[in-house]
Amino acid sequence: MVLVMSIIVTPFGVLAAIYLREYAKQGPLLRLIRISVYNLAGVPSIVYGVFGLGFFVYFVGGNIDQLLFPEALPAPTFGTPGLFWASLTLALLTLPVVIVATEEGLARIPTTIRQGSLALGATKAETLWKVVVPLATPAMMTGLILAIARAAGEVAPLMLVGVVKLAPTLPIDGNFPFIHLERKIMHLGFHIYDVGFQSPNVEAARPLVYATALTLVVIIMALNLSAIGIRNHLREKYRSEGD
User: Fold this and answer.
1) What is the pLDDT of residue 92?
2) How far apart (Å, rounded) are the C-alpha atoms in residues 210 and 69?
3) Is 81 exposed, middle or buried (0-12, 13-18, 19+ CB in 10 A)?
4) Which residues of the chain have pLDDT under 50?
5) pTM of the model
6) H-type helices in the chain, by residue range?
7) For residue 179, what are the CA distances in angstroms to 83, 167, 237?
8) What's the pLDDT at 228?
9) Which of 4, 53, 199, 201 could bridge 87 with an S-S bond, Cβ 3.0-4.6 Å?
10) Of the candidates 46, 79, 6, the residue with the CA atom closest to the CA atom of residue 160
């Protein structure tokens, strides 16, 4: 789920930040958009879950079922909570983090580098995509790291858009197309809530809570360390060019 979320949020967040920083005309409208982005970062996560349920699941998923899977109705295929809608909801939740981090990275690129590229005959687009964006890649990775850290621990919105106590089938199996985005998923965070607070025998469930919490922390650390390693590699790669 986090990997699918990362694949979705990264291009949208980066492109939005590039447009706001490099192409959008400075003025009251742009300031209003930036304030809106900052406000979205502070919206409670459960609100994103309600929005994801209403828009992604019922509206988008319902229309997909009517267009592509009418023979299966009234049993929904995509018009029900699942892995894809959970990933989209998390991508929307973490989008402001990626936008802000990428914008800050673009703003730190010295003007002299841009001017030098333009003076050598490069167009604005070539300067942006071949010089500025590569130098800002570590900042983009920082935004992705923060997005992963926030998304991996979210539980409340996922309870509405795809997470269940016991999934009858896994979203990844040996049957084509191997990744089934429409299926419901289990989640370690929800498992902690379910075992720790819904179990009739608290003492017997306590070891399961500790083990699940440890597993979740280890997975989040592994994801973050992988992203940090990639960021540091990119930072060293472009350090000489930035200097």
Assistant:
1) 92
2) 42
3) buried
4) none
5) 0.84
6) 2-18, 28-40, 45-51, 62-68, 83-107, 111-119, 124-127, 133-135, 137-152, 158-161, 188-197, 202-242
7) 10, 15, 34
8) 83
9) 4
10) 46
Q: Which two tokens stand for residue 117?
A: 């590229």
Look-up of token digits 């979203």: 171
Residue showing tokens 């920083």: 21
The domain limits of the chain are 2-242
Q: Which CATH class is domain 2-242?
A: mainly alpha
Q: Name the packing angle between helices 137-152 and 83-107 (round to 10°).
A: 140
Which amino acid appears at position 133 of this protein? V
Q: How many CB atoms lie within 10 A of CB 8?
A: 18
Beta bridge partners of 179: 172
- For the chain, the first-to-last Cα distance in angstroms comes to 38
Q: Is 157 helix (H, G, I), strand (E, B) or coil?
A: coil
